[in-house]
């Protein structure tokens, strides 16, 4: 737990907002969060369909290649500031006596009684096996499981989320002039400038722009507890599929 509640980098803020909004929604009744504040938080965080939401603007930021457009960056910063503002209001409205150790560790607050928490040190051991299924119109279906022989797709108890890192690369079709700054020739691994997406469910989708149809979607997945990212599991094998 650091002295600063909210991370400073764009990537760390994205992870924090994802974690905190899910946690506050799940524990809203116990924490006494008002319906108004909860609705406001969900509205600001939003989704990939509402252009004024944090999620929509973060997706636009990630999709922008090279040096980020000033307007795209400014809009993301605006939404980040709004997220910090509403989360601060919610945190300050929760009585100190209500806060548990898990609340303080998850939300990075020192509110309430002194922290008594044992930080795990063992990395997630479960392997991850994924099915990648292009569904058409740029939609990619992802299903993850810990047992290659199992038909059940679920996040193991030792993890909290699935992290997927992906890139759009050249397949059997050449990169046209108008796609040079949008499609890469290759991507050698999950740390090679990939887009990162987190899901609390083992079955989820990634919606790509239809302009990428015909190119390839290359990706890797791993089990992760975003609260302890250094203990994430190993990456899956490489999946490389044509976008339909």
Describe the structure.
The protein folds into 2 domains: 10-107; 129-242, Immunoglobulin-like. Helices cover 30% and strands 19% of the residues. It is built from 6 helices and 7 strands, in the order ααααααβββββββ. It has a 4-stranded antiparallel sheet, with no helix packed on it. A 3-stranded antiparallel sheet has the order 1-2-5, with no helix packed on it. The N and C termini lie far apart (44 Å).
Give a quick set of tags describing it:
single chain; 244 residues; alpha+beta; Immunoglobulin-like; 2 domains; 4-stranded antiparallel beta sheet; 3-stranded antiparallel beta sheet; 6 helices; 7 strands; 19% strand
Summarize the topology:
Elements: H1 10-26, H2 28-31, H3 35-45, H4 54-63, H5 70-93, H6 101-107, E1 129-136, E2 139-145, E3 161-169, E4 195-199, E5 203-207, E6 216-224, E7 239-242
Antiparallel strand pairs: 1-2, 2-5, 3-4, 3-6, 6-7
Helix pairs in contact: 1-3, 3-5, 4-5
The overall strand count is: 7
CATH fold-level name of the largest domain: Immunoglobulin-like
- What Rg, in angstroms, do the CA atoms define? 19 Å
Strand fraction equals 15-25%
How many H/I helical runs?
A: 6
CATH class category label of the largest domain:
Mainly Beta
Q: Can you say what the CATH homologous superfamily of the largest domain is?
A: Immunoglobulins
Strands in their spatial order, largest beta sheet: 4-3-6-7
- Tell me the helix content: 25-40%
Overall geometry comes to: globular
Largest sheet: number of strands, sense, barrel closure: 4 strands, antiparallel
Structural class, please?
alpha+beta
Which segments are poorly predicted (pLDDT under 50) over 5 or more consecutive residues? none
Note the gap between the termini: 44 Å
What is the N-to-C succession of helices and strands?
A: HHHHHHEEEEEEE
Domain count: 2
